[in-house]
Amino acid sequence: MCLAGIEVCFTVPLASWAMYLNTHTIHMFPYKGWANTHWGFFRVDQFPSLEWEANPLLVTSLELSRWAPVACAFTFFGFADEARKHYRLAFTTVAKRVGYSVSSSSGFTTSTGYVLIL
To answer: So what's the pLDDT on residue 101?
Structure first.
């Protein structure tokens, strides 16, 4: 119930803000039928970054749609004990392959004997 309550508290303002950004950055045209809607359906337009970065609302909208799922995933699932255990396991695996050995203290020991304090 707590997770559902937190989700409602964050989803409603975030979705409202995203709808506000989308209504101010996307040009709306009248509906003319399915033939007009599906015309050029497989065409993908590319725009230089100078063109879309000139509009700050568009940049905010695009970055919000890019990073919101990542932030939500870490917020709701990324800080659990099991997730942190898997992060630590992945980190130590990569550290061992690079040449660092994980010690019981807060640092890493290299193969030459130097200690890196984190």
So the answer is: 75
- Give tens-digit pLDDT for 35-62: 988 888 888 889 898 988 998 888 888 8
Distances (CA, A) of 46 to 49, 53, 106: 9, 13, 47
pTM over 0.70: no
Residue 10 and residue 65 in one domain: yes
Categorise residue 74: left if φ over 0, alpha if ψ from -120 to 50, beta otherwise: alpha
φ/ψ region of 108 (left if φ > 0, alpha if ψ in -120 to 50, else beta) reads beta
- Which domain range does residue 110 map to? 81-118
In a domain, 33, yes or no: no
User: Do residue 54 and residue 89 come from a single domain?
Assistant: no
| Alpha-carbon gap, residue 109 to 115, rounded angstroms | 4
